[in-house]
């Protein structure tokens, strides 16, 4: 009878273990990377490479194609920036949590030997195996909570990749603009230096007051300082893009285009951008997922707040008279002093905190999109005003000044200064166009997806670089 009973107990324990293991989840082979790729792609993001390591051959192939486009720069960054591998590692941590949550705790095997001091009596052996039954009851809820948290981790990883893409695009536009402004500042410096040389020749001939000479020299020195500063800014912009691309500082076999693209003729609808942000922002979805998980956790805590540790198992012993005993065992922690009030309150407070953070994030998204769009509108309006009004005005002033100089109605210094002011207008235009594209990158970041108007981006670029006129160094 005892043998049959023991076999039944062992079979029951085996059935419980099989039931628990049957609900276990396996670790995804790609740690959920395919889902991250889909989330990025659905928001107009780039195609993600495998995250198992760098691909130097693919990077070299892109860099050898010629001047990088903004999209090419993002592709290189996804291949070489360590941030991608860090996100892949974070997915591994999330997958491990799901794997762990889907499995019950291991059973506990215990044993003891009591040595007898009575001659003829055998030593006493006690042994048992127990399993936390509450752990089995909570297996399903714990698994669902872990899977929800893993989904949030995947959303966070996709959001980090979109942030990296935005950082690369912003650094790309800064570099293109910095190099174009640098060339313009050097033109201005050359023109100012030519004006100073001409002024010196006039002063040496006694045809120019000392004040006019010193003004021309000061303008030349200031223009030289501006050109040096522009050069330093271009170097810093290249170093920043190098860092984001994952390229070493000594690598110089890649270039960006000479000119910025022209601003778009129109902007996106404000209401449409707000709706797109609410449906696309991955950090918003991740926070909503966190709140849902906290609500589920509160429900589980309430349902099981009175359930203490409950262990079931099989206990056996061989007594000193060599008789064998075997039977079931159970232990239950009684909820006499702690009925789980603190645990429920803690779970409720975490849910309330998450709900408040979600409301704050929604407000931040709404305000962030509105502010980024206003900045884009302002930068676009300024760039268009430069192109349509200010630069043509400066060009007409130079043309009229040139006509007066041809008839010797004014001296060469007036013409040179008019030309310098024209160059300054060009430099201001380039900076306005740069700010426009940076504002669009920030707006896309705030929206959390590719802007609808991105489909209207053409290959047109801003006005070509200008050169210092030969007349700037003419003789008196």
Structure, described:
- This protein is an alpha+beta fold and 476 residues long.
- The protein has a single domain (31-103, 138-305, 340-473), classed as Outer membrane efflux proteins (OEP) (Up-down Bundle).
- It has helices at residues 2-22, 33-42, 56-63, 70-80, 82-101, 133-137, 139-204, 210-245, 270-280, 282-303, 341-406, 412-447; strands at 108-114, 124-132, 310-318, 324-332.
- A four-stranded antiparallel sheet has the order 1-2-3-4.
- The protein starts with a helix and ends in a 29-residue tail after the last helix.
Features:
4 strands; about 475 residues; Outer membrane efflux proteins (OEP); four-stranded antiparallel sheet; disordered C terminus
Please identify which CATH superfamily we are dealing with: Outer membrane efflux proteins (OEP)
Using the 3D structure, state the CATH architecture: Up-down Bundle
Separation, N- and C-terminal Cα atoms: 126 Å
Residue share in helix: 55-70%
Count the helices. How many? 12
Kindly report the CATH topology.
Outer membrane efflux proteins (OEP)
Q: Segments where pLDDT lies below 50 for 5+ residues?
A: 1-5, 466-476
Helix and strand string, N-terminal first?
A: HHHHHEEHHHHHEEHH
Please identify the structural class as seen in this structure: alpha+beta
CATH hierarchy, class: Mainly Alpha
C-alpha geometry: elongated
- The number of domains is 1
Mean pLDDT over the full residue set: 84
Largest sheet: 4 strands, antiparallel
Beta-strand content bin: 5-15%
Number of strands: 4
**C-alpha-based Rg, rounded:** 37 Å
Strand order of the largest sheet: 1-2-3-4
């Amino acid at each position: 009878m005892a043998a049959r009973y023991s076999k039944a107990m062992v079979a029951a324990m085996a059935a419980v273990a099989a039931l628990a293991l049957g609900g276990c989840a396996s670790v995804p082979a790609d740690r959920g990377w395919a889902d991250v790729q889909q989330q990025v792609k659905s928001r107009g993001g780039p195609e993600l490479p495998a995250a198992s390591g760098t691909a130097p051959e693919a990077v070299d192939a892109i860099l050898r194609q010629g001047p990088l486009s903004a999209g090419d720069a993002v592709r290189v960054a996804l291949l070489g920036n360590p941030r991608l591998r860090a996100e892949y590692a974070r997915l591994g941590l999330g997958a491990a949590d799901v794997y762990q949550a889907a499995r019950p705790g291991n059973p506990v095997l215990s044993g003891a030997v009591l040595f007898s001091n009575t001659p003829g009596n055998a030593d006493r052996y006690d042994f048992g195996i127990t399993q936390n039954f509450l752990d089995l009851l909570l297996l399903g809820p714990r698994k669902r909570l872990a899977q929800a948290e893993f989904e949030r981790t995947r959303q966070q990883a996709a959001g980090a990749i979109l942030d990296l893409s935005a950082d690369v695009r912003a650094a790309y536009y800064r570099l293109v603009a910095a190099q174009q402004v640098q060339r313009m500042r050097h033109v201005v410096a050359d023109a100012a230096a030519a004006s100073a040389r001409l002024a010196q020749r006039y002063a040496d001939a006694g045809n120019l007051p000392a004040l006019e000479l010193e003004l021309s020299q000061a303008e030349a020195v200031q223009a030289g300082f501006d050109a040096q500063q522009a050069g330093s800014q271009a170097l810093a912009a290249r170093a920043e893009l190098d860092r984001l691309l994952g390229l070493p500082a000594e690598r110089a076999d890649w270039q960006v285009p000479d000119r910025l693209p022209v601003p778009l003729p129109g902007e996106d609808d404000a209401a449409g951008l707000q709706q797109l942000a609410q449906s696309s922002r991955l950090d918003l979805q991740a926070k909503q997922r966190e709140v849902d998980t906290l609500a589920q956790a509160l429900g589980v805590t309430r349902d099981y707040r009175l359930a203490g540790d409950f262990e079931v198992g099989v206990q056996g012993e061989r007594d000193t008279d060599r008789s064998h005993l075997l039977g079931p065992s159970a232990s239950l922690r009684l909820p006499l002093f702690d009925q789980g009030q603190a645990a429920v309150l803690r779970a409720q407070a975490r849910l309330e905190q998450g709900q408040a953070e979600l409301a704050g994030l929604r407000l931040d998204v709404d305000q962030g999109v509105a502010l980024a769009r206003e900045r884009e509108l302002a930068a676009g309006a300024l760039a268009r005003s430069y192109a349509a009004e200010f630069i043509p005005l400066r060009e007409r002033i130079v043309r009229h000044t040139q006509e007066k100089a041809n008839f010797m109605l004014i001296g060469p210094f007036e013409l040179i200064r008019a030309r310098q002011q024209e160059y300054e207008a060009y430099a201001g235009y380039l900076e306005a166009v740069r700010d426009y594209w940076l504002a669009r990158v920030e707006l896309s970041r705030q929206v959390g997806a590719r802007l609808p108007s991105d489909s209207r981006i053409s290959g047109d670029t801003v006005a070509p670089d200008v050169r210092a006129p030969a007349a700037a160094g003419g003789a008196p």
